[in-house]
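dude i think i finally got it to work??
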Amino acid sequence: MSKGIIRYILLGLCLIIILQALTQPALAETTVLKKGMSGKAVESLQDNLRSLGFFNHECTGYFGDITQEAVIFFQKYNCLSADGIAGKETLSLISKFIEENTVMVLKKGMSGEKVLNLQKDLRTLRLFNQEPTGYFGSVTHESVVKFQKNHNLTPDGYVQPATYIKLQRVIKETVKKTKIVIDPGHGGVDPGTQKNGVVEKEVNLDISKKLQALMNSGNYDTVLTRKNDVSLDSLSNNGDTRERRDLSARVNIISENKPELFVSIHVNSNPWNPDLSGSIVYYNDKIPKSKALAVSIQNALNNIPGYAGIRAKNSIRTENFYILRNSSIPGILVETAFITNKQENKLLKQKDFREKISKAIMEGIDEHVASNN
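look at this
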C-alpha cells in the first residue's frame, strides 16, 4: 500500500474522531440520572461524588437509595434543588468541582447562602441561637465544633462533607417531621386560567410536585391533594356545583391529614391589566399563624434572584377564597405569577423558573417553621 493511500486513510480516521467528538454531547449537558437507572454514567457519578466526599461506598453503577441520598446531600450542600435527581445543573457542578479539584468546605470567614443554610440547620438542632446572617464567624464556628464533639467527629470547626452529612442525618433522625398539605389548584375538567399554551392546572401540579420533592428531602412529611390531572368533586357531596364540591374535597383532605399548615398553588390572571406581575400570597386574617406564614413565603418569593425589573415585589393580602375561609388549619394560597403578563407567561413555561418558585416557597416554610419551634 502506498504512503499516499495510508496518509488518506489516517486523515479519514482523524476526521471521523473529530466529528464524533464534536457531535457527542457532554454527559453533564444531556444526561439525567435518577433512581432505578444503571450503567457507566451512574458509576462515573458515584466515583465523582466519592471524590468530593459525598459517597462512601463501592461504585456499582446502580442508582439506588444510597446514590440518591448522596446526590441529595451534594445538592443541599451546594444550594441546588434537592430532589435526588442528577440533572444538567447538578452534573455540571460536579464536573466543574472535579476539574478544578475543589475542596468542599465551609469555614470561618466565609459567607453566603451555603453558610446561611448551615446556620439554619444548626438552629434546628438548637446549637445556633442567633438570627442566621450568612456569615461564618466565631459563633458559627463554636456551634460546629460543639456538633462535631457531640458526634465523635474531628472538632476543627470545618464543615466538610463528613460533618455536613452527619448534620443532615441527625436532623432527619431526631427532629420531628412537620406535616404539610400541598394543594395544586384546579385539575381535570377545570383547567384554571390559560393563555399562549400555558395551562394553570398543569403549572400548579408541576410546581407542587417539585415542592413536594424538595420538602421530602428535608424534615417534612407532605401530602398532595391531587397527584394527577384530575378534579376532586367526586370525593365530596358538599356543594351544589361541581366546583364547590371540588373545593370542599380539598378542605376535607387538609382537615383529615391534620397538617401543621397547607399551601395552595395557583397562577394569577388579570387581562384588564397585563402589566401586573410577581407572586402574591393570600391568607385568612382570622388565623394568626397564617399571616406569619404568608409573610415568610411572600418575602422569599419577592427575593428570587435574577428577575429584578421583571417581576414586581408584592405584599401579602387577605381574600375570601373558599379554601382559606373554610379551613381551620394555618395556610396560604399562592398566586405564583401572572399568566397575562407577557414576560411572566414565558417564565411559566420554563422549568428553571418553576423550580425557583418551589424553592422559594420551601424557604418561606422553612423560615416560618424554624421561628415557631
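The chain has three domains: 25-99, 113-174, 178-372.
im so relieved honestly
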